[in-house]
Amino acid sequence: MGGKYRITGNKYPRMRGPRRRGRLVVVVVASVAVLGVGGWGTLQLIDVFTGGGGKASAAGNGTDCAPRTKASASPAAKALPEPRTITVNVFNATTRGGLAKKTADELKKRGFKIGDVGNATKQYDKKVKGTGVLLGPATALDTSLPVLGTQLPDAERRTEAARKDAAVDLVIGDGFKELAKRPDADRALTKLARPEPAPTPKKGC
């Protein structure tokens, strides 16, 4: 050692300890700097992809872009005839007796005018498998037949081009049990005359 150091005891002096600690400090400082830069860069990327708004949230700054439903304007009520202005002929196409008269009496209680009542013609006698058939002139397709249809919803509707009179026929079929319950028929008639407005989608942005 050149005589400059005197060694005493059984331990040698540690000459390189401070240098190692200095390197460790440098490494720690560098790591913190790298992490800081990386974190700042990550925040910048987040700002880019979220529009740069640090306060942006799922609410989109209060703007709701989800589709909304808005009820459209209520359509004008249809000009449908009232039951009292509709003449109904009731015919029985089944083998069960008395159905035509019983049905005609109930329709009369509900405000319809009753015309002919009896057995169906050969064209329909014992040939109607459903609840019934509603017949009328072509002009009745969107007027009298829908109104009468509220009393027997499952009945088939037909028009006859050659028919001139305004009366409509109710031909009772094998599947007939009874007319629709009066409260149900009244609600159907009200809905037919005043249909509910259909909802239309509306975008918020």
Automatic annotation (TrEMBL):
Domain LytR/CpsA/Psr regulator C-terminal intervals: 85-176
Ranges that cross the membrane: 21-41
Record key words, sorted: Membrane, Transmembrane, Transmembrane helix
InterPro entries: LytR/CpsA/Psr_C
Protein name: LytR C-terminal domain-containing protein
Organism: Streptomyces purpurascens
